[in-house]
Amino acid sequence: MTSPIKPPEGNWWDQTVNRRESIWLGLGVVWSLVLFGWMSIWTRTGDQNPIGETYQVSESEFREKMNAYEEAAEETEQGLVPEGTDVYMAGIRFAWDGAPVVLEAGTQYDFHLSSYDVQHGFSLRPEATLSKQINLQVLPGYEWVVPMTFDEPGTYHIICNEFCGEGHRSMHDTIIVTEEN
Ligand code: CUA
Question: In the record, which residues are listed under signal peptide (predicted)?
């Protein structure tokens, strides 16, 4: 079988590279180095980086904190109303311990996030705009304290975004945010 592509004629391998081609190659190399450096800088300084503090915590320690938090909180029909501005939430296959919770718009809360078993995803979406969301990961053995302020009152859905087993798709709960007092 013959190829439909004809080989170039002459000693094409032995000719000098056109100056313009060299310039474009050079620009390509420089630009790739710029992007490489930018990637490195951006992962350190970009605003996309997770905020807050993370601590190591055992499952039983976090359960104890959760129990103390739930005991101090007020139970209402809509959900728990925390005593202060600390909010505890833990993923467990296939539910969110500590939810539903009732919070106030405009107040900065410290969310203490952890997991009792495996890695879960913590996606928060306002019901009015489901395409808007933040995605965090909760890990067993770690307590992540994330400051959060809800600007708008409404219902926010907590959805697990990390495949964690058979009931993953039903791992859902809510945060009710009320008007600022
Ligand atoms: Cu928890 Cu998926």
Answer: none
